[in-house]
Design brief:
The complex is a heterodimer of chains A (266) and B (400). Chain A is an alpha/beta fold. Chain A has helices spanning 3-13, 33-42, 62-73, 78-89, 103-109, 111-121, 137-145, 160-169, 190-201, 217-224, 234-242, 248-264; strands at 18-24, 48-51, 97-101, 125-128, 149-150, 152-154, 174-177, 208-211, 229-232. The longest helix of chain A has 17 residues, at 248-264. Chain A is globular, with a radius of gyration of 17 Å. The chains are: A alpha/beta (266), B alpha/beta (400).
């Protein structure tokens, strides 16, 4: 059983929802990333989404693009991201890590080498934003052969037939993008999300994560009430951006505690 | 004879092209694909398009024999397909009219566009004004500075110009930003992409709308010379003017198709915008797979060209395909060579060419020297150079 699946199984038996924070590897500086990952876990992360910096993050909003730019100043490439996962794994063998990024860095490394290194370093799932299921058959097979989950996005505009297609290819969990737009956009319509998550649930047994618009404890709480996992990206990155070297860990810890408390109260 | 029939149903040209976008864009592209399928052979739609090309743009654009230039070079005869004479001063308007008419049929009241040199932005703002559509143009902050007259033109036409401050602040960043706008405003917005790149159906659709250039040229060459040219030369950034003139000639034997990329300061310096000529690796950007200028980590690297319209790290997927199947050849011309060709055409023929088109001219001149006088080179003069006079003056240290 994959680490992602067993995490969701355990949470389910405890009647809890997963808190999944997102950070961009190398932001604000590569020296912080592994410590930040441990901090996230210490304060309640059930799984970590680790962003691979990319020069042209088309599906992300300005907040996450700036995180990519900060990381790229320090030449933070995919190879280094994988090394960081390996470093993290030395002292944490149970928290699942999902890499989130774009196709080009993976293709530049080569699919075979990427899957082999990912497995070796302890990556559990990969979400490649610009690989829709029709374009990534070979990649999915390679991930599957390496025992790594393929995470896919579903959006408010995804048609039912397409939801079926995606649900068939996805493993680990499905990530529902809760609003039209890029990461960090505003105004979550929780009733609409609830309806869509219920529809998706009729088509798959996979857990459903919801993200793109969880901006505070209150939205985290309402999302936790209707989904299996709450993904917090831009809000987390904004906190990192607003911090300095002295209060970075403290600020991230505080945000995580707020989110965890809110989710557990849902 | 095998008939060229590309792309496949999902927009692939061999390994190139495709639909590499986030799930949030998939349905919008599917809607566009279906609507384009519906209208691309619709007689009423095509008649409306043809009417606008004739009466609004002024087509057909003439072919002109650059006799003095040819004599001066002393080789093959150079002919120019005068896209610079189109309304708005470049080939870009052919495509924006096609897409705007489609937007209207789809009931989208708002159009957005990305622009590099500003020609596509101006062409989009122009047709938006004529059709009464709201228009927002994304332009890299660096290009906004380089192309101030075009920025003002767009504003005169009622468009909102948004300077993009992220990344390298050029065309690719404007494209990123336009995609973000589209994904956020999908229900009321049509994204008019200006080149033969992006996710399917854009590379095919833009090619189809631009292929009026080559269709006209085929008839005009027969009328003028009773035969087709020996070579066709066009500049390639994303590659829309080149695809427009190449496409109708793909199945015509013995016509060399030559795309000219921007070598910037020289291929050996790394400061260029010539992914095909420099043998850049294959990658995925802006919704399609193609040859891409990138570093070892797969991040897109900054490009350089004196001409903003060629300053793009990728290239349309069909060009990548034509290179691989060896139907087209790709070469590169430096900033300095393009500038020399620019001045030469101004002085010899009384035509001020765009800096983009000057790359094609520079290569045509080199090539002409190697060919006999009775052979013919047709250059796609994709745009006029009025927009570039500030850049040219600056290079000569002249303050206007």
């Amino acid at each position: 059983m994959s680490r992602i699946q067993s995490t969701f199984d355990t949470l389910k038996s405890q009647h809890k929802k997963a808190l999944v924070p997102y950070i961009t590897a190398g932001d604000p500086h590569p020296k912080w990333t592994v410590e930040l990952m441990h901090t996230l876990v210490k304060h309640g992360a059930d799984m970590i989404e680790l962003g691979v910096p990319f020069s042209d993050p088309m599906a992300d909003g300005p907040v996450i693009q700036r995180a990519s730019e900060r990381a790229l100043v320090h030449k933070m490439g995919l190879r280094k991201v994988l090394e960081m996962v390996g470093e993290f794994r030395k002292t944490d063998a149970h928290t699942p890590i999902v890499l989130m990024g774009y196709a080009n860095p993976i293709e530049a490394m080569g699919i075979a080498q990427f899957t082999q290194l990912s497995k070796q370093m302890g990556v559990d799932g990969v979400l490649t934003v610009d690989y829709p299921p029709e374009e990534c058959g070979a990649f999915n097979q390679a991930l599957s052969a390496a025992g790594i989950d393929s995470i896919f996005l579903l959006s408010p505009t995804t048609e039912p037939a397409r939801t079926d297609l995606i649900a068939q290819q996805a493993t680990g969990f499905l990530y529902y993008v809760s609003l039209k737009g890029v990461t960090g956009a505003a105004n979550l319509d929780i009733e609409e999300v609830k309806k869509r998550v219920a529809e998706i649930k009729t088509k798959t047994h996979l857990p459903i994560g919801v993200g793109f618009g969880v901006k505070d404890a209150a939205t985290a709480k309402s999302v936790a009430a209707i989904a299996d996992a709450v993904v917090v990206g831009s809000r987390m990155v904004l906190t990192i951006e607003a911090s300095n070297e002295d209060n970075l860990i403290e600020n991230v810890s505080k945000l995580m505690q707020e989110l965890r408390t809110a989710i557990d109260a849902s | 004879m095998q008939v060229y029939d590309m792309p496949d149903a999902r927009g692939h040209f061999g390994q190139f092209g495709g639909v590499f976008v986030a799930e949030t864009l998939v349905e919008a592209l599917e809607e566009l694909r279906l609507m384009y399928e519906k209208y691309r052979h619709d007689p009423e739609f095509l008649a409306e398009f043809a009417y606008d090309l004739k009466h609004f743009v002024g087509r057909p654009s003439p072919i002109y024999h650059a006799k003095r230039l040819s004599d001066k070079i002393g080789g093959a005869q150079i002919y120019l397909k005068r896209e610079d004479l189109n309304h708005t001063g470049a080939h870009k308007v052919n495509n924006t009219i096609g897409q705007a008419l489609l937007a209207k049929r789809m009931g989208k009241p708002r159009v957005i566009a990305e622009t590099g040199a500003g020609q596509h932005g101006v062409a989009t703002a122009t047709i938006a004004a004529r059709l009464g559509l709201e228009c927002v143009v994304y332009m890299g902050a660096e290009d906004v500075k380089r192309q101030a007259p075009n920025v003002f033109r767009m504003k005169l036409l009622g468009a909102t110009v948004v300077p993009v401050e992220s990344g390298s602040k050029t065309l690719k960043d404007a494209l990123n930003e336009a995609m973000r706008d589209w994904v956020t405003n999908i229900s009321d917005t049509f994204y008019i992409i200006g080149t033969v790149a992006g996710p399917h159906p854009y590379p095919m659709m833009v090619r189809d709308f631009q292929s009026v250039i080559g269709i006209e040229a085929k008839d005009q060459m027969i009328e003028m010379l009773g035969r087709q040219p020996d070579a066709i030369v066009a500049c390639v950034g994303g590659g829309s003017n080149a695809m427009g003139i190449f496409y109708p000639y793909i199945d015509v034997p013995n016509v060399r198709l030559i795309g000219v990329e921007a070598a910037g300061h020289g291929l050996e310096t790394g400061m260029h915008a010539a992914p095909l000529t420099a043998n850049s690796p294959v990658g995925v950007l802006h919704g399609n797979r193609t040859y891409l200028m990138q570093d070892a980590d797969g991040n897109i690297i900054e490009t350089h060209s004196v001409s903003a319209g060629l300053d793009y790290p990728g290239v349309g997927p069909e060009h990548a395909w034509l290179k691989d199947i060896k139907r087209a050849e790709y070469v590169a011309i430096t900033d300095d060579e393009a500038m020399a060709a620019f001045h030469q055409l101004c002085r010899t023929e009384g035509i001020i060419p765009a800096l983009e088109s000057s790359h094609a001219l520079a290569y045509a001149e080199k090539l002409a020297k190697t060919m006999p006088k009775d052979q013919v080179i047709l250059v796609n003069l994709s745009g006029r150079g009025d927009k570039d006079i500030n850049t040219v003056a600056k290079l000569a240290n002249i303050t206007l």
